Task: inverse folding
């Protein structure tokens, strides 16, 4: 068992990662909504941002699983579901060539992941 200060530090890092992931999900969904409604082109920056969100969601899931092992908490369920939904949307958006459909798929699946992350917590 880790010392008490280490547990508090891990919980603080997890809370910070939760806030970062929520902010990135909000930014990605709002960016996709604006570009979907404005019929803008899907750029490489949009691709990077959506991939960056997935990386942070995976890091948050990994830390949640670590905290589950250490503190026996049940905080990994929403992280897992959110990551899988966003990953599925990212996979589907890679199969499409049209920019409008790419933005729509990122918008829908990342918004669902955002809602699950906030609501289930």
Result:
């Amino acid at each position: 068992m880790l010392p008490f200060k280490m547990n508090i530090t891990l919980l603080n890092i997890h809370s910070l990662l939760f806030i970062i992931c929520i902010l990135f999900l909000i930014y990605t969904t709002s960016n996709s909504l604006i570009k979907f409604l404005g019929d803008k082109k899907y750029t490489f920056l949009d691709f990077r941002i959506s991939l960056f969100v997935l990386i942070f969601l995976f890091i948050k899931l990994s830390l949640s699983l670590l905290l589950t092992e250490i503190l026996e908490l049940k905080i990994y369920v929403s992280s897992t579901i959110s990551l899988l939904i966003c990953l599925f949307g990212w996979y589907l958006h890679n199969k499409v060539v049209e920019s409008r459909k790419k933005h729509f798929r990122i918008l829908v699946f990342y918004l669902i992941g955002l809602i699950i992350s906030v609501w289930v917590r």
